[in-house]
Amino acid sequence: MSFFIGQTQNHEDNQAQLLRVYTDLPEESGWWVVPKGVTKMTIHAEAQNTETVLFWLIPTGTETWSERKLIGYDKDGHDGWSLTWEFGHERLHDHIHVQALGSDSYTQSNSTINVTTKEP
User: Fold this and answer.
1) pLDDT tens readout for residues 76-108
2) 14 φ, ψ to 5°?
3) What top-level branch of life does the organism fall under (predicted)?
4) Residue ranges per domain, the chain?
5) Which among 69, 52, 60 is positioned nearest to 109, based on CA atoms?
6) Which of 11, 81, 111, 120 is the most buried (most CB within 10 A)?
7) Could you tell me which CATH number the domain at 23-117 has?
């Protein structure tokens, strides 16, 4: 991309964009469900203008952002943005918050999905 003196670039064209977040788990009523016996999941993010994608686990409830835990990140989007997370036998009823950090070192885009462990 080249520019001429006095020409400006539309900043929105370079902003981080998180287009879609999904997992390899079944989805039911807006929740991604961990079936019995499953101990890991892959979280996928479709993003543009992104340098790094962060994956956070946040408890359900109100004002729980301060209780978040970074479960991983992906710095190489050439093969798609994703994280395979081994959570073991931890029972989940949480949010997974995904942050796409912009390649412009300024913008970010966020999305949250819900994940729960299937009752036995």
Assistant:
1) 999 999 999 999 999 999 999 999 999 999 999
2) -105, 0
3) Bacteria
4) 23-117
5) 52
6) 81
7) 2.60.40.10
